[in-house]
Specification:
Layout: H1 2-19, E1 20-21, E2 26-27, H2 32-62, E3 80-83, E4 90-94, H3 98-112, H4 117-123, E5 175-180, E6 196-201, E7 204-205, E8 211-212, H5 215-218, E9 221-224, E10 251-255, E11 263-271, E12 287-295
Parallel strand pairs: 4-12
Antiparallel strand pairs: 1-2, 3-5, 5-10, 6-11, 7-8, 9-10, 11-12
Subcellular location: Cell membrane; Membrane
InterPro entries: Na/K_ATPase_sub_beta (IPR000402), Na/K_ATPase_sub_beta_sf (IPR038702)
Family: Belongs to the X(+)/potassium ATPases subunit beta family.
Length: 297
Amino acid sequence: MSGTKEEDRKSSSEWRDFFWNPRTHELLGRTATSWGLILLFYLVFYLFLAGMFALTMYILLLTLDDYKPTWQDQLATPGMMIRPKGDQLEIVYSVSDAQSWDGFVQNLNSFLSPYNDIYQVQTNDNCPPDQYFIQEDSGEVRNNPKRSCQFNRTMLEECSGLSDHFYGYSRGQPCILIKMNRVIGMLPGKDGQSPYVTCGAKRYKVDKDEWREDSDKIGPLAYYPPNGTFNLMYYPYYGKKAQVNYTQPLVAVRFLNASLNTDINIECKINSNTLSTGSDRDKFAGRVAFKLRINEK
């Protein structure tokens, strides 16, 4: 027992001496001079690393353009999206239940508020259609901010939410807005031919070797603006900072007599004489697919 106590005292004494040795004036095994030298080394070392990082970032920032990406990995075909956005690109509602479609209406109202005609007239230009609105810089002199063309809400006609405040949802004739993703410098058409949107039944797999489509359920469609075009005057896009008031063109599709109480799988795609057809590897390149279900009750 006494041997154990003596060993404990010896071990405790060794730990105290390691933390602070009064004979050698060492703290944690190092003298004040040793601690000063090692702290000085690490201070210089980390200051050098911080300086190298700051210099690298400074040189990198010198190569960047505030208005245009230095490197742009442009897709062959831009992506597309719809509004209103339902869960997992599904527009499901009941005509008789206003609460089921009120969220879609509010979403469209909010989305279209910058497109009001009064705001567009005040901020954007009335451009000649069917030709690019090119605004080149003059050498090193920036032509910024660049102007933008008007896209008035009234151009969506029956899907503008002005004549029909419920966008057709209360009558079982819903409007879906389609937009094409912005790509700086993209020219989506040539020879005065604007790209346009077409919607139809999407083929989907129901069995190992069986495919199906819902073409008999869609019914007639109406497109706004006419022919569902993205007019060339809204291109090219110069970037958010250079073109601060840019208004993205839209296409509205109205389902005039879609089948009720059934799922309808729909695909809308862009048609252009310059943009390549989207790849199966990217489901949103040049197209967007969604499910529509209009319940009667």
